[in-house]
Design a protein that fits this description.
By secondary structure, the chain is an all-alpha fold. It has helices spanning 9-16, 28-32, 38-382, 386-390, 400-411, 417-422, 429-475.
Length: 477
Amino acid sequence: MGRRNWPWRGHHADLRHPPTPPAVSPSPAMAGSRFTAPTAAEAELLLLQKQALPEEEAAKAKRELLTRFLQEKLSREEQSSKRGLHKVRTAWRSARRKTKDQELRQDIEILSQTFTRVIDCKDGVIEALVRELEEAEEQHSRALRSHLHLTDQLLHLQRGRLGYLEEGFNAQVDTLKADFEAERRTILEQQEWESCCLRDMALAMEQDHARNHHEAMLNFQSARDDIKNKCWQEQQYCRLQLVARLEKLWDQIQEARQNYTQATEKKKVEFEALKKKCEKSSWDIDAQAKKLQNLQEMVTTTRAQIAAHLQESEKQNQRIREDKEHALQKLQKLRAQSSQARATAHTHLVTLTCQCSATLKVLQQLVEKAQRILRLAEMCRRLETEEEEVLPFYPSSLAEQEQQNARKVLEQPPIEPLALALQDYVGLEQFWKRFNKAKLEEKVLEQARAALADRNQNLRGLLQQHLAGVAINQKMP
């Protein structure tokens, strides 16, 4: 605390410098008798001085007593002001704590109300999601049933097709095996012949390589000797040049060293001056460190008090945190349950989308196949003759009894898998009849074409023979 401007400072300053005694004015009698009796005036002056000395000593003692009293009073007032300030600060802190506690409690109540509102909203959202999930599961089960029914039908059809494909595949495998064995025999024979040829060529190449290697070694040795001689000569020349360069560099280093010593003398003097300044600053730093240590002691005491108050507030905060953590755990459990439900719903939706995309692709392929069949049917219809338009299917070559037997066989329930598969294509019987008729006509035309080609070739051969005979007859005289 700074010193205060006390009201008695001016009075105290006046006491330190007492007024000088008034000058004794000489009376007219004394002025008249100055020249006559000088000894009497001197005696009076001596008396006055003797009387003034004890007065001055008494005034000095009074001044010392006053200064001591005032110093003690200042120290007491400073201590009392420090105590009053400390009391005021503690009262202010307690009032601030109370207000802060009330504010924190109000904030906690508001947060608890908002938290309950958010939980209610989340519960409503979770209930809506559960309803949507139940509806989605029902839809998924319906779609799954229909999809399984369709897959069973597709599997039944595919099994029949696979049976036909296996039979054709086995026949193709047998033919391929026979072709492979024949090719294997020819390849092995060719490989034996080529291996004999390669052995002969390898022997010839080895002999040529040995001859070339011997010649290359002789050329290499001669070239190596020439290169060694050239390198030795170049090394001698380079060594002489390096010695001359080293001498020049040594002279330059000596000159640079002398220049460096001359340039660093001034810097040494500056370094010593800076060193002295550094010692003085170290003393100042030590004094400041002592002051800082005293301040740190005061700070530690205040921190201890703050820590005591903080412990109490931390206990209250810990209770609030425990309640908050308990509520957060409940919220996390609810979030985990909702996330699991979302994940299951997402997986169901992904499987549904994959299955739907697969079925769409299959249906698109079927649609394309049907469109192709319809195009072919339109083309066939355009190419039909008048007879085919009236009677599109050829009459069966079977007798009536045979036709009746065939109908009885068709009416019996099928046992074999191929017959079961054919029941799905009963509506295509007329189409197969027409298709078979077209195939038979195609085969007949191919046979007729082959017969005509053979006849044409025979006729060409006969014509060539005839022309050759005519040419020979013309050459004969």
